[in-house]
Amino acid sequence: MKTYALLVITAALVGSASASVTLNLGTNINGNVSGAGSGSWLTAEFETLSTGTVKLTMTNNMTTASGGFVTGWLFNSNKAITGFTHLTSPVNGPVATATSYASNGNSGANDIKGGLFDVLFTFTNSNNANRFSGAKSTIYTLTGTGLTETDFLSVSTAGGSSNPGSGYYTAAKIQGYGSSAGVGTKIQAVPEPTSMAALALGGLALLRRRKKA
Question: Which helix (H) or strand (E) holds 141?
Answer without folding.
Answer: strand 137-143
